[in-house]
Specification:
By secondary structure, the chain is an alpha+beta fold. Helices cover 27% and strands 23% of the residues.
Length: 358
């Protein structure tokens, strides 16, 4: 269930082993929170996952060559912004020490492709035949040896085992009914996890008036829990455009995601940028694109914040129902695309060996 990074990777792993499977995807496309747009700029833009977090040592077989810089067709560069400022209490301040921090973290980005392109290459014609799009599952019956998954349209799918890779917000909102119900220990772990608000906005300007990065508010915070920063999306790209991006998630994102319309959101952002840069945002504005993940159906936010027990979250139920995704990696390498991919391999291994960790 779910054709995001974990679901697609699981399908790839099962296909390699010759195991029959179907993928049920709620939306009309695959990728989940890995999403791109072409045509807005002179390079493809990651509307979802963007950075290659090398510090997260997840080791999914499909991502090893990528992380080591040896994946044909997917060039990765070291992300090293040169000018980093902080805007707080009406003043811009230099944050040169953050350049050293970013160098130590050693994050990368795709030079001329995206995370979506990387995941999409796994969707071979054989695997794509297995994906049922626009098929949100609303009920899973698992009282007998045969599991029955029922979609919103009433279509039923039968299987020996089910791997759930939907965003944890869907489980928290109880979008899927389980019969019998999930045990208390599983529901407690699900509800303890936090899944913050999140969005990305890309704006083209006719002039470049901004630094490589500007943090709004405090620059000292847990990046897993909140972020509110603008960044030059063309850094490291072969581009002639002036594209400034906003990435916000967690508590600091709610001021953006809670706005009711895209116009209200754009007005708010331009006003914020005008305050920081003396009216230049409105003066040089050309166009924009918004990806509000908090309002995205079947997703509802950004990513997990490691508040719940990963052991409990990822633990299978009765060798029938398994879990994978960026919040469900029992090796501890949670979050990030390659953390989700690794969780899929671990879950598939458990499914095939009937190993129950509880």
């Amino acid at each position: 269930m779910g054709a995001g990074a974990a679901g697609i990777t699981a399908g790839h792993a099962l296909s390699e082993k010759g195991i029959d499977f179907e993928i049920l995807e709620a939306s009309s496309v695959h990728g989940g929170r890995v999403k791109k747009t072409d045509g807005f700029a002179d390079f493809p833009i990651d509307l979802g996952a963007e950075w290659v977090h090398r510090s997260i040592k997840a080791k999914a077989p499909t991502t090893q060559a990528l992380l080591s810089g040896q994946s044909p067709g997917f060039r990765i560069f070291n992300y090293r912004p040169k000018t980093i400022l902080q805007y707080k209490n009406g003043k811009l301040r230099s944050k040169g020490w953050m350049k050293l921090l970013l160098a130590l973290v050693n994050d990368g980005k795709f030079a001329d492709s995206t995370w979506f392109d990387f995941i999409d290459q796994l969707v071979t014609p054989e695997i794509k035949k297995k994906i049922h799009y626009s098929t949100p599952v609303i009920k899973i019956e698992h009282s007998s040896n045969e599991i029955v998954a029922t979609s919103a349209s009433g279509e039923q799918f039968r299987a020996d085992k089910v791997l759930i890779t939907v965003p944890i917000k869907m489980l928290q909102d109880e979008y899927i009914e389980f019969a019998p119900a999930l045990p208390d220990w599983k529901k407690k772990a699900i509800n303890k996890e936090q899944f913050g608000d999140g969005l990305k906005v890309f704006i083209e300007f006719s002039e470049k008036f901004y630094p490589d990065v500007v943090e709004i508010g405090s620059a000292i915070r847990n990046p897993l829990e909140s972020d509110d920063s603008y960044y030059d999306a063309t850094v490291g790209k072969n581009s002639s455009k002036n594209i400034l991006a906003l990435f916000a998630h967690g508590l600091t994102a709610t001021k953006y995601t809670s706005l009711k319309t895209d116009k209200a959101l754009l007005d708010f952002i331009l006003k914020e940028l005008d305050e920081v840069f003396d009216g230049q945002a409105t003066k040089y504005y050309k166009k924009h694109i918004i990806q509000n993940w908090s309002k995205e159906p079947f997703i509802g936010g950004s990513y997990s914040m490691r508040k719940g027990s990963v052991k409990e979250l990822s633990a299978p139920l009765n060798n029938k129902i398994y879990f994978a995704g960026e919040a469900m990696n029992p090796s501890g390498k949670t979050i990030a695309v390659h953390g989700a991919c690794e969780s899929a391999y671990l879950a598939v291994s458990e499914m095939l060996t009937n190993k129950d960790r509880r």
